[in-house]
Sequence to fold (122 residues):
Amino acid sequence: MKETKNIVLAEDNTTLSQLLKFRLQKEGYNAFIAQDGKQAISLIEQHKPNLILTDIMMPFISGLEVISHVRNKLKSETPIIVFSAAGQEEMVLKAFNLGATDFMSKPFSPNELIIRIKRILT
Fold:
């Protein structure tokens, strides 16, 4: 039996985060939801997830700061998929420069997200 993978999802849109949490759990993942970047960092430090999903624009601490914290402070190679509303190309480039693994433009298909997650976690 393979171990359940932990995923931290940082998304300030409650509807979207609940939908994604449901989908992730249905696929057999443990999903920990953060409403903002500050919460995301504490969940990441607590659960040492196999994958991090983060929105770029969030209250308190942005997704970019979350990536920076994971790569520089925690020295972690944990894969990070970043979400961003369309038209934020500069943010996306910054995210990749900081060490993001993958990027999805919002709105996106939860099915596509699951496929990308499986590809990264296998």
User: Anything to note?
Assistant: The mean pLDDT is 94. The chain has five helices and five strands.
